[in-house]
């Protein structure tokens, strides 16, 4: 998978900062006496930081939490509360905001997938909760049906609750696969264009066979309406990441939908000892997620979109007159549905592979990450993860490297 390549290219880097840290032990000792908030631990420890012109990649630490979110987290860190109380009150608010019967904050969308699955399997039976993921001989159902094209790695989260994945392509195959062990029909919104069966038919099949349906919309806001669209449509469970475009804690997500499943999922979660115990979310993540959701819903999304377009124009204008360079705006259709800048170059005029380009931007000062692993002689830049003014640096660095690699005519 592509993700593995990103990981590889990110880890083989020389860590420029680490040399400074090693060369200045006295400074380290002195800085240890300064209160933590004043310290730059990244610099101190030699951790490379970078301008993110790529996107909300888990490997690149996701997103930056805005002040609203950090305020909620800091305030939450100063008082004790019962975790169940926090989940209950926040869950009720999130449910209301997203048109669901119930909601809970999970440790990322991955955990929402696993816990939602567990809730479907166990219901409110605590004996069953203690048996997951060892389903054999318990009377719990054991199979989940999904479309082959929707199997992109994230379905693995469901198997952590003990189920087997049954992958089908056609409606006829799906209907033939349903049996007394079928627990749920699972849908990955990101791949809706690839699968033969779309939302409405998926829901119709769920109704016909009296099976719960779950949809994964992890990275599929904006548009903001997606937060409630799939609850309105009738999916029994909807799961989404908190730390992607919503900019909540990177370790947060939401499980929402029918009350009977969310209530059951909470039984498998911390503070109890079910399969979710190792994916603890505390008051800081839960309230941080809530603040992020609140902020995101109330954002001026049209203004955000215009700002991204302005940034794209600035970068494109800086480089498009370079001989052999082409720029265009690309908007992914479902996940990360936001304008990105696509830069393509003629390999006869600019002698630089896409991965070399990625490496040079990464090794520059400041270090810049772009999406450099998708196609030869091209890269993409995500705008929604850039901090104010950083587009100018990205423009200057791209220009510099493209000109440096240009063949003199
Ligand atoms: C990112 C993602 C996940 C996992 O979400 P986390 O919040 O990182 O746990 C699940 N499904 C899809 C489709 C994703 O893009």
TrEMBL record:
Q: Which residues carry this modification: N6-(pyridoxal phosphate)lysine?
A: 244
Gene Ontology MF annotations: L-seryl-tRNA(Sec) selenium transferase activity
Gene3D superfamilies attached here? Type I PLP-dependent aspartate aminotransferase-like (Major domain) (3.40.640.10)
Signal sequence range: 1-23
Per its Swiss-Prot or TrEMBL entry, what cofactor is needed?
A: pyridoxal 5'-phosphate
Q: Which family does it belong to?
A: Belongs to the SelA family.
Name this polypeptide is given:
L-seryl-tRNA(Ser) seleniumtransferase
UniProt source species: Daejeonella rubra
């Amino acid at each position: 998978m592509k993700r593995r390549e990103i990981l590889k290219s990110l880890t083989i880097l020389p860590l420029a900062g680490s040399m400074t840290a090693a060369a200045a032990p006295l400074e380290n000792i002195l800085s240890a006496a300064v209160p933590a908030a004043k310290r730059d631990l990244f610099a101190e420890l030699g951790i490379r930081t970078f301008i993110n012109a790529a996107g909300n990649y888990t490997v690149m630490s996701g997103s930056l939490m805005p002040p609203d979110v950090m305020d909620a987290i800091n305030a939450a860190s100063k008082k004790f509360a019962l975790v169940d109380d926090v989940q209950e009150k926040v869950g009720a608010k999130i449910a209301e905001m997203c048109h669901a019967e119930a909601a809970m904050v999970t440790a990322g969308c991955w955990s929402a997938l696993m816990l939602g699955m567990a809730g479907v399997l166990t219901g409110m039976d605590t004996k069953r909760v203690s048996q997951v993921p060892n389903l054999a001989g318990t009377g719990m159902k054991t199979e989940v049906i999904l479309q082959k094209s929707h199997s992109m790695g994230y379905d693995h989260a469901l198997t952590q609750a003990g189920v087997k994945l049954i992958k089908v392509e056609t409606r006829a195959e799906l209907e033939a696969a349903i049996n007394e062990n079928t627990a749920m029909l699972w849908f990955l919104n990101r791949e809706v264009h690839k699968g033969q069966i779309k939302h409405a038919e998926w829901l119709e099949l769920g109704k016909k066979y009296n099976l719960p349906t779950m949809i994964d919309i992890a990275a599929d806001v904006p548009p903001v309406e997606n937060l409630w669209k799939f609850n309105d449509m009738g999916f029994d469970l909807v799961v989404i990441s908190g730390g992607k475009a919503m900019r909540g804690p990177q370790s947060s997500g939401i499980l929402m939908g029918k009350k009977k499943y969310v209530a059951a999922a909470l039984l498998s979660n911390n503070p109890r000892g079910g399969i979710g115990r190792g994916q603890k979310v505390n008051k800081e993540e839960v309230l941080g997620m809530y603040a992020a959701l609140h902020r995101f819903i109330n954002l001026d999304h049209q203004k955000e979109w215009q700002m991204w377009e302005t940034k794209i124009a600035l970068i494109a204008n800086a480089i498009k007159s370079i001989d052999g360079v082409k720029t265009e705006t690309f908007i992914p259709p479902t996940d990360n549905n936001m304008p990105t800048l696509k830069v393509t170059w003629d390999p006869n005029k600019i002698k630089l592979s896409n991965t070399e380009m990625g490496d040079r931007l990464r090794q520059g000062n400041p270090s810049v990450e772009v999406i450099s692993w998708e196609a030869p002689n091209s890269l993409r830049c995500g705008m929604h993860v850039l901090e104010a003014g950083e587009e100018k640096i990205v423009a200057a660095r791209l220009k510099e490297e493209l000109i440096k690699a240009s063949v003199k005519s």
